[in-house]
Structures are given as structure tokens and as C-alpha cells.
Write a structure and sequence with these properties.
13 helices, mainly alpha, 292 residues, globular
């Protein structure tokens, strides 16, 4: 046990040398801080314009700071699109897609990466090809299927579509992770009497959990930002998502500059809050994946 104030020592008992940061490290830090400040400028401009009155925006311009805390633009936009209900739709759809797509990716990757089914390479190539298809090529077939099954203009239709779309990428990523899974660990679990279901949930999933957390965050954000398919499938006002409500209102030209800034701010804040909440989970997942 070292005495208070004594220099720290390594395992061999030798005193540890403190690493001094050179000028290059501080230069990189300053450059990163400056880059972060530059990236925050558009966000600050949006916040500033959302707190202005239309008269103040016209007289002072978009880059001038607001003279006070004016929430009229935010309040008008909230009431006009019923933003609370629209926000609930987006959270429900994005959250459901994130959870279901991760589960489907785990099942598919377990069969492809560990089960080693026949035609594995061709299936992975097909999934990779599916990720490159533009959504414009999928709209009409998906629209026709939704009409045939009677789920058109429902949130369930969008959840099903994006669960399949997102799981294609998740399956491709997880299958490469699970293909390198330690075989002795699987053999030991089978010798102990674990069946395939127990091997999946008690052995495989705990090991790949950091990767699953990263996919969960990505799937939520990607689904939140989707516009084309929700716009085609969700034509009723009570089923619209945040991105669709913003696009429809802007297309009708019913907003001035301050209300447009308020709409952009309200549409951006939920994803920022979600990212800040799961930032530590995301960084741990990326770090764990890099270490492995």
C-alpha cells in the first residue's frame, strides 16, 4: 500500500512516469473545440430565430440575437400541428422499430453467423444489396402490399416496413460479429446442457450487448429522420410523424421564418435529448467493439 503523497508505481514496483501532453495534443484539442463551435452555429441560429417575433426577424435579420424570450412562434407551431400527438407517434414508431429490428437482427445473425446455414454468403450479399436500394424503388410495392393487407395509413405499416429495412443492416453487421464468436465458449455451454435458445440469450447476447446498444440508438435516430415512406403511408393527421408534419406544413406555406425555426428546433430537440441520454451507452458500445 502506497503512502499518501508517494508517487504511483506499476506492478513491478517501479515509479510510474506521468505522460506530459505535448504542444500537438493541445493543438488538436483547440482544433476540436473550434470545430465543435462551428458545428453549433446553425443550431444557435435556429434557437435565436425561434425566439424572435416576425417583426424583429424582418428588421434585424436572421443573425442578430433576440431581444427577449419570445415563445409565440413555438406555441403557435405546437398548437397548429398538435405537436404533442405527433411527437408521441414518432416516439412510438421509432422506439418500436429500434427494439423489433434489434431482435430480428439477433435472430437472423445467430442463424447466419453461428448456425452457419447453407448459402450464408449469398444471403449476406443479398442483405448488403438491400441496403443500397433507394426507397423510391420500394414505395409502390410496399404501398400495394399495405393496401392488400388493410394496414395502409396505420402506424403498424410503417413499423413493419422499417423493422425489416433496419434489420437488413443489423443482420449484416451482427452476423460478421457472431461469425468470430469463440467456439470453445459455445461448446462449453452445450456440454453443460444448454439448448440453442439458452446459448443465444445466456452466452451470445451478453457478449454482443455493446453492439446491440449501438444498433438500438442508430435504428431509433434513423427511423426518426425518415420522411418519404411515412409521408406516403401516413396520410391522416392523427398518424403523422414529426418529419411528415414539418414537411406538410412547410409545403402548404403556412409558416413564416420564425415559425420555421421553431419547427426545426422542436423537431431536433427529441433526437438531441435521446442522444445525450444514451451517449455513454453509445460510446461504451463503440469502444467495446473496437477492443474486441
Amino acid at each position: 500500500m502506497t503512502k499518501p503523497g508517494a508517487p504511483a508505481r506499476d506492478r513491478q514496483g517501479a515509479p510510474r512516469r506521468r505522460r506530459r501532453r505535448g504542444p500537438s495534443a493541445y493543438a488538436v484539442l483547440v482544433a476540436l473545440v473550434a470545430l465543435a463551435g462551428i458545428m453549433l452555429i446553425p443550431f444557435l441560429v435556429v434557437v435565436s430565430n425561434a425566439l424572435k417575433t416576425p417583426q424583429e426577424y424582418t428588421s434585424k435579420g436572421p443573425l442578430a440575437p433576440p431581444s427577449g424570450l419570445n415563445l409565440d412562434a413555438i406555441r403557435d407551431f405546437w398548437d397548429r400541428v398538435d405537436f404533442g400527438h405527433v411527437l408521441l407517434n414518432s416516439v412510438l414508431i421509432s422506439g418500436s422499430v429500434a427494439v423489433l429490428a434489434v431482435l430480428l437482427s439477433v435472430f437472423n445473425a445467430y442463424a447466419l453467423g453461428i448456425g452457419r446455414i447453407k448459402g450464408r454468403i449469398w444471403l449476406l450479399a443479398l442483405l448488403l444489396l438491400a441496403n443500397t436500394l433507394p426507397q423510391e424503388a420500394l414505395v409502390y410495392p410496399l404501398y400495394y402490399l399495405a393496401k392488400q393487407f388493410g394496414i395502409y395509413d396505420t402506424r403498424l405499416s410503417v413499423i413493419i416496413v422499417f423493422t425489416v429495412v433496419q434489420s437488413a443492416f443489423g443482420t449484416y453487421l451482427l452476423s460478421s460479429v457472431m461469425s468470430a464468436f469463440p467456439r470453445p465458449l459455445l461448446e462449453a455451454a452445450r456440454i453443460d446442457g444448454a439448448n440453442r435458445w439458452q446459448v443465444l440469450w445466456r452466452v451470445v447476447v451478453p457478449v454482443v450487448r455493446p453492439t446491440l446498444s449501438v444498433l438500438l440508438v442508430f435504428f431509433f435516430v434513423w427511423t426518426w429522420n425518415e420522411f418519404l415512406i411515412p409521408m406516403v403511408f401516413l396520410i391522416s393527421n392523427e398518424n403523422q410523424t414529426v418529419s411528415v408534419a414539418l414537411g406538410v406544413l412547410q409545403g402548404q406555406r403556412l409558416m413564416d421564418a420564425t415559425m420555421s425555426s421553431a419547427a426545426a428546433l422542436l423537431g431536433l430537440l427529441p433526437t438531441v435529448v435521446f442522444f445525450l441520454i444514451f451517449q455513454r451507452t453509445l460510446s461504451r458500445g463503440l469502444t467495446a467493439g473496437a477492443i474486441k
